[in-house]
Amino acid sequence: MVKLKNLLEDIKEILLMGPGPSCVSPEVYKALSRKTLGHLDPYFIKIMDEIQVLLQKIMNTNNKLTLPISGTGSAGMETCFVNLVEPGDSLLVLINGVFGVRMVDVATRLGGQVDSMEFEWGTPINVDKVKEKLEEKSYKIVAGVHAETSTGVSNPIDKLSEILKGTDSLFLVDTVTSLGGIEVKVDEWGIDAVYSGTQKCLSCPPGLSPVSFSDKAFSVITNRKKKVPNWYLDMSLIAQYWQSDRKRVYHHTAPINMLYGLYQALRLIFEEGIENVFKRHKENHLKLKDGLEGLGLNMYVEEPYRLPMLNAVSIPEGVDDLKVRQTLLNKFSIEIGGGLGPLAGKIWRIGLMGYTARSENVDRFLEAIESTINLK
Ligand SMILES: Cc1ncc(COP(=O)(O)O)c(C=O)c1O
User: Fold this and answer.
1) CA 351 – ligand 1 centroid, Å
2) Domain check: are 138 and 260 in the same one?
3) Ligand 1: residue whose CA is nearest its atom 13
4) Residues forming beta bridges with residue 314, ordered by sequence position
5) In the structure, which protein residues have their CB atom closer than 6 angstroms to any atom of ligand 1?
6) Within this chain, do residues 181 and 140 fall inside the same structural domain, yes or no?
7) pLDDT higher than 50, residue 375
8) Are residues 45 and 174 in the same domain?
9) How close is the Cα of 181 to the center of ligand 1, in Å?
10) Which atom of ligand 1 is nearest to 145's Cα?
């Protein structure tokens, strides 16, 4: 027997107030450590069925094809594009941050003919401009991000849906950061393909990506000219494992314990009450905003477009971004995020997602940032 050093023993508890992952509740940790079942065990299948029901509920959809993809949010993004895009297909991608840029990369790799419209980072997608564009040209797919985690902006998916209704375009939406923190109404907003992630407002560790496809999107998938080029993410194959009205067919070994975690996280949301969960996010966001403004700090995004779960704050002139974040981590055990791309060094991204969005965390953070900035 050899005794190896166990790095896990020294993991510190960090208050995760960055752009994700967020804090995980003890009940979800407990769920993760339940005994592993087989991926076709009838009891596990009961849990799968319930996960689908809870996902439909949180996404406000009746889509049968609603399930968690094995992989992080980017796997969900890839799933949506790889199933719907064939070489030469036209797409319009609406960009106002890193994740819109990533969508263009993913769609282009699949041979999509991508037009993009970019809006200033920190401002929302301009619906009137999109409307003008759609009057000039029609697209197979129009894609955008609901909650742009890189900037803290909430995009008007509801208003975009109004201009897309009555067109033949498929509406593809990223809800990685929004799901579980603000309302996501897949059916009402006419969304055809949507993906999310477990490590933000669902408050699970990273590793699963809930997705949902409308019947219209699924018929596009089943009528493709060529097979989906990615075997692992092919929804027509994955559906054979997840759809409860058919005999389940092995596709890949489901990440059983992660699915327990997601099941428990969704249960916790509905036990608290989804409206209460949204209210808790909003109230803690406002408390944080007031506290930051009291310290002389300014929110980066204008008032009506701010996300409650991702607070972008301008870094004051002369303050060392990295030093502040390192002090918060090393001295106070609090993680926040820095800016990405053009916003690197200009903003901090303070997450209040899921289990992190609690009053005591806001208090702890405000005390820490106050003394950290004074340390300058
Ligand atoms: C809006 C958005 N989309 C997609 C992703 C990618 O998800 P992941 O990092 O889990 O692959 C993220 C991750 O931060 C995100 O915030």
Assistant:
1) 13
2) yes
3) 73
4) 347
5) 19-20, 72-74, 77, 99, 145, 149, 174, 176-177, 197, 206
6) yes
7) no
8) yes
9) 15
10) 1
Q: Are residues 250 and 314 in the same domain?
A: no
- Its pTM stands at 0.97
Position 334, amino acid: I
Q: Considering only CA atoms, which residue is closest to atom 7 of ligand 1?
A: 73
pLDDT for res 376: 42
The CA distance from 268 to 152, in Å, is: 25
Q: How many CB atoms lie within 10 A of CB 3?
A: 5
For 153, list phi and psi in degrees, rounded to 5. -100, 140
| Cα gap 279→13, rounded to integer Å | 26
119 and 211 fall within a common domain: yes
Closest alpha carbon to 275 in 182, 212, 213, 371 = 182
Spatial distance between the Cα atoms of 122 and 110, rounded to a whole number of angstroms? 29
Instruction: Report how far ligand 1's centroid is from the alpha carbon of 179 (Å).
Output: 12
Q: What is the pLDDT of residues 219-240, one digit of tens each?
A: 999 999 999 999 999 999 999 9
**What pLDDT is stored for residue 166 in this prediction?**
85
Same domain, 116 and 176: yes
Token duo for residue 141: 């797919």
Question: Alpha-carbon distance 80 to 309, whole Å?
Answer: 24
Residue 130, domain CATH? 3.40.640.10
Domain containing residue 217? 26-270
Q: Are residues 222 and 328 in the same domain?
A: no
Checking if the pLDDT of 44 tops 90, the result is yes
Same structural domain, 113 and 186? yes
C-alpha 300 – ligand 1 centre gap (Å): 20
In the listed set 270, 291, 311, which residue is the last one of a domain according to the structure? Answer: 270
